[in-house]
Amino acid sequence: MASKMKRKKGPIDAMGPAKRTKSERGKNCEEAPKNDTRPSTNSHLEIEQANGSNAQPATQDQCTVSNVQQVPQKSTNFEGTHSNFAKSKLAQPWKLSTSIGGRMITSDPVFTPDERHLIVATRTTIQVYTTADSLLARSIRLKLDSSLLSSTQIVTTSLSPSNTDMIWVACSNGSVFRVNWTNGSGADSFWTVSSTGCIHMTVASMESHGRKRDVVFTTEARKEGGFRTTANELAEPDGTIAIAARTIYTSQEPIQFLKATRDGSIIVGASRKRILVGRLRSTEFDTVDRIKFEFRTFESNEFITSLDLKVSFQNEVEVTRKDRLQKTPVVDLVVGNIKGVIFVHYDIAGELFGQPKNGLLLSTTNLVPPKLHWHRQAVNSIKWSLDGGKETVLVLWQLESGKKDFLPHMSATIENIAISPNGSSYAIQLSDNSTIVLSTADLLPKMMIAGIQASVIQPPKFPGSNVLRAEATPSHLLLAVGAQQEVRDFNPLIMSNSYLQTFDLGTGQSVSNQALTRTNVTNVNAAPNSHNISEPRVTHLKISSDGEWLATVDEWTPSANDLEFLGTGVKSLSTEINHRREVFLKFWKRNSSKNTWELVSRIESPHLTDEVSSDSGRILDLASDPSSSRFATIGVDGSVKIWSTRLRKRDGVLVRGKDSKVLKNWGCSQAFKLGKTNLLENKDQEPRLPITGCVSFCEDGSVLAAALGSKNSLINLIDSYSGSIKKTFAELYAPEIFGIEFLGQDLIILSDKLVSFDIVSEEIRHTYKLRSSILNLSVDQKREMMHLAVDQKSKTFAISLPKLPTGIADQLIGARSELLVFHQDTREPQLSEFFPTLITALSPASVVHLQSDRCGEDPISQPIGSLDDEEVEEIELVDDSATTTTVLDSSADEPRKYPVVTKHQLSEVFDIGPAFALPPMEEMFYRVTNLFAAPRMVQTVR
C-alpha cells in the first residue's frame, strides 16, 4: 500500500484574478513545518581584517577574526571619503523580488479543450498562455516547502478528464496538487502520495458504482527497495469520500513513463528496456483501494525513451458477453528507443492478454511489430501523427503508405510533443526552453513562447556566465545561450552557447534569438563516428555604456575524438588542440528597428599564445568603458588591448549607410604588455600560461586595472589613453583572480579572498576570507561559479559563492549559491540569501519596477524601498516608450568645470579623409565647440 497521504495548505501566489478566500477544508490536515532556512549572514566569509583609522599598508600580514566579529573602527575616514552618499541608504534593508522566467520542465504541454490556452510548467509554477497572441495570461506559483526548494520541482502535469478547469500537478517530493488553471485556486494545498518522491504521473476518469472520479496513477520508489505504481483517489479531507490508494504493480527497476486510457481500463508503462501493459480486471469496486489490474510485460532490445497510446473502441456488435468490461478498447502502442528506432504495436492489449498468464512472455511469442527507423539518435518524444528526435527534425509517418514528410531545421532538439483536442495544432517543446505551436494544415507556427535559455543542471537520462542588461532598454536582458542547455550533473562537459537571447523582464518573454557564431542548425549535427559536432562557445559578452555596441568573444577547439587519427600522446594531443584553436572578437551594432544586433567587425586571433607563437590565444577577460564606446581585453600572452571605433573608408572616401551616417569599424587603439607574470626558479622550466585574468575600467574610463593569475599577484593601474603603467600593487590576491571592479576610488578584488582596496590612500579597507569548502574547488569551478558585480549609483557590490554537496567535488546535483550584497562603507553584508540552484551570472541593475505577480526563475535583488507593496500594483515597467526629460546636472559639473577632450575625439572631427571629402567649415566648427562647451546631460525617466 502507498504511504499515508496528507492534504496541506499555505498561501497562494497567482497572477491575474484576485486571490480566493481561504477555505476551511484543511483544518484536519497536518500543517507543513515552517523551518527557518535563512543562513547566517557570513556562511561563506570570514572578516579577516578591516582598516579604518588604523589602516595598514597592503603588503603587511593580515590577521584572522573568527566567528565574523566586527572590529571597532572610526568612521571618519569613510565619511570623509564618501561624504556625498546619503546616510539613510546605508540602513536601507534589502530583499529578493519575485523571480521571473524559469526553465520549462520536460513534460508535454497541455492544450485546453477549446484550444484557446496552452499550459506549460516551469520548476515551481504553472504558466497559462493564450494561443492567439502568445502572451502570458496567468502564472500560478505552487506553495512548496522552502527548505526543499533546491531538490523539489514539478515533474509532470495532466488535465483532469472529469473537470477540464482543473489540472493535476505532481512534484518530485511526492506532493500532488489539483489546481484550477482559470483562477489559480488549489495551489496552496496538496496531497502527499509518497514519502519517497514521485517519478511520473498520469490521470484517468474511472466510473464504478454509479460514481465517476479522477484516479491519479503515480510511480515512485519503495522504502524497502524497488519501485511501484500506485492508484490514488485524492478527495477533500472534509468531504464524504475517503482518500484511498492501492499499489497495483511493483518492479525492481524505475518506471520512467506511464500512460493510461481516458477511462483507466488500460495502463502502459516503460521500465528501462521493459514495456508493461495493465488491464482493469473489473469495474465493480466502490473505492480505489479495491481496484485490481492484471499486467503483462515484454522486453525490448534497447532502452525505451518515449511511448504513446491511441485508443479506439470496438463496435457494440463485436463485444461478447465474455468481456469483463462493458467496452473493450483497442490500444495501439508506439515506442521509440535510444537508437532512434520506432516500433508500432497494433492492438497490444488484445495480443498480450490472449497469451498464457505467466507474467513475462516467452521469447517465442509472435510480437513482431512494424519498424520505422529514420532518427540516428534517441527518440525524445513520440505521438500518434508526429515524432521528434535529436536531429531537430519533425517526421510525419504515413503508416499505410510508408511515406515520410519532414519539417527540418527546428532551432533545437525536440523534447515533447502534444496534440490539440481536435487535432488542428501540434505543440512542440524544444530543448532551448521554448515551445512552438504548429498548424497541422500547413505546419506553420501559430504561437511561440520562450523562457530564459541559460544552462541548467540535469541528472543523466552548466554554466553560462554571460548575462547583461541592455542600457538602451533596461528591461531587456542579454544572454549567451546554446541550443542545448541541459548539462549532465557529474563530470559536466563544456557546452556551446552560440546564440544571443534577448529576454524582456517585464513581460517574462523572449524578444529575439540570433546566432553569434556558426551553428549546425541547417547541417547534420553528428560526425560519421556518431559524436556530436561542437559549435563555438561565447566566453565573454559586454555591452557599451550607451547600449549601442556589443562585444563578444567566441572560442572553438576540436574535441579529442576528432584528433584520434593522429595517434599522439596526451601532451601532443593538447598541443594539437591548441594549434587548432579559433578565437574571434566581434563587435555588433544595435538595430533598433529590427531589435537585433548587426555584425560590424570580426577580429581573428586578437591575442596570441605568446610572443613567438602564431597560435590563437585565449581571451581571459573583456571590459567595457563606462564613459565611452571602448572595450578592453586581456589575453594569455600577458597583454592588454583597448579597442575603439574608426571611421570606415573606401579609397580614402568615407562610407555612409542608408541613413547617411558615416559607418565605423573597430580596431586596436592601444596595446601594452604587463610584464613577466611568474619568475621561474629553474631556467629549464617551461613557462606556464596564465589561466585567469581580469581587466576593468574606472568610472570615467581614464584608468584601467589589469591583473593576471600568478604567484606575483600584481595589479597594474594603467592610463587608458597613454598606455603607461601608473601604479602597481602586490599581494592583493593569491594566486588566481576571478573578478576585479572599480567602485569609486576603491578596487574590489575577488580571488580566494574578497578585498576592498582604496587606491588613493593605498590601504586595504576590508578583507574577507572565503571558507575552506570554496578554497578546495578547482580553478575552473571557481571561475564559472564565483561572480562579482558593482553598482556605482548605490555604492554597493555583490558576490555569489557556490556551495557544492559535501565530499563530492564533481557532483552538481544539489549545488547551490549564496548571494551577498555589501555597501562600500559597511563591513556587514546588507543581504545574504541562499539560492536553491547555482548562480551563473551577476549584473548590476538599474531601478526597474516589476509587477508583483510575475513569476519565474530570475530573481532581482532590490532595496525594499523600491518594492513597496502598495506601489507595485500601480507602477508599470519603465522602458523606451516612457517619457524622457533631459535636464542639466549642475552638481555633476562642479568637479569638472572644463570638459576633457581627447585626441581620439578630435581625430573624429578632422581626420576623416582628404581635403575634398571634408564637411563644410561651419559644421566642423560646431563639432569642435560642442566638444569643449557641451554641458553634461543626464536623462531622468518619468
From TrEMBL:
<protein>
    <submittedName>
        <fullName>BgTH12-00763</fullName>
    </submittedName>
</protein>
<feature type="region of interest" description="Disordered">
    <location>
        <begin position="1"/>
        <end position="42"/>
    </location>
</feature>
<keyword id="KW-0690">Ribosome biogenesis</keyword>
<dbReference type="InterPro" id="IPR015943">
    <property type="entry name" value="WD40/YVTN_repeat-like_dom_sf"/>
</dbReference>
<dbReference type="GO" id="GO:0006364">
    <property type="term" value="P:rRNA processing"/>
</dbReference>
<dbReference type="GO" id="GO:0032040">
    <property type="term" value="C:small-subunit processome"/>
</dbReference>
<keyword id="KW-0539">Nucleus</keyword>
<dbReference type="GO" id="GO:2000234">
    <property type="term" value="P:positive regulation of rRNA processing"/>
</dbReference>
<feature type="compositionally biased region" description="Basic and acidic residues">
    <location>
        <begin position="21"/>
        <end position="37"/>
    </location>
</feature>
<dbReference type="InterPro" id="IPR001680">
    <property type="entry name" value="WD40_rpt"/>
</dbReference>
<dbReference type="GO" id="GO:0003723">
    <property type="term" value="F:RNA binding"/>
</dbReference>
<dbReference type="GO" id="GO:0045943">
    <property type="term" value="P:positive regulation of transcription by RNA polymerase I"/>
</dbReference>
<dbReference type="InterPro" id="IPR036322">
    <property type="entry name" value="WD40_repeat_dom_sf"/>
</dbReference>
<feature type="repeat" description="WD">
    <location>
        <begin position="612"/>
        <end position="646"/>
    </location>
</feature>
<keyword id="KW-0677">Repeat</keyword>
<keyword id="KW-0698">rRNA processing</keyword>
<dbReference type="InterPro" id="IPR011047">
    <property type="entry name" value="Quinoprotein_ADH-like_sf"/>
</dbReference>
<keyword id="KW-0853">WD repeat</keyword>
<keyword id="KW-0804">Transcription</keyword>
<dbReference type="InterPro" id="IPR053826">
    <property type="entry name" value="WDR75"/>
</dbReference>
